[in-house]
Design a protein that fits this description.
By secondary structure, the chain is α+β, with helices and mostly antiparallel strands. The chain is 40% helix and 16% strand. The chain has a domain of 80 residues. The protein has a 3-stranded antiparallel sheet with strand order 1-3-2. The longest helix has 27 residues. It starts with a helix and ends with a strand.
Length: 128
């Protein structure tokens, strides 16, 4: 009779360990919710870099034309929540940025075949 009690207690402990491990695996293996870091960032300016119309807008300092090109190239998630800065200063940062997680992209255009007039395009975008 003594042997059966020991066998049952060993079986109970084994089931308790198995149950505990399965609960821990279930709790810690839940998929994480997507955060802003998980959202892939678009490479808008690198896609527009070789577009001659976009280059012309930037080199002529036509900010509305540059903004419309970028607005059409941005994913819908970022449309309406971005700032474009066209300047010669590489270190320029706009002062009216919101208190959010801001992503940046920049592109330096040195000019075209006819004239050398370097310009820096900086794109600041965020999720509303």
């Amino acid at each position: 009779m003594v042997d059966k009690k020991g066998y049952l207690r060993t079986l109970e402990v084994s089931f308790a360990i198995l149950l505990t491990i399965s609960v821990l695996v279930f709790v810690f293996s839940r998929p994480q919710l997507a955060t802003q870091e998980d959202i892939p960032q678009p490479n808008v300016l690198s896609n527009l870099e070789f577009n001659s119309e976009f280059r012309g807008c930037v080199l002529q300092n036509n900010e509305s034309c540059t903004t419309s090109f970028i607005n059409n190239s941005l994913p819908a998630l970022y449309r309406g929540s971005f700032i474009v800065a066209v300047d010669e200063d590489v270190n320029f940062i706009p002062t009216d940025l919101p208190e959010k997680r801001i992503h940046t992209d920049s592109l330096i255009l040195s000019g075209n075949i006819e004239n050398y007039s370097p310009a820096v395009v900086k794109l600041f975008y965020w999720v509303d």
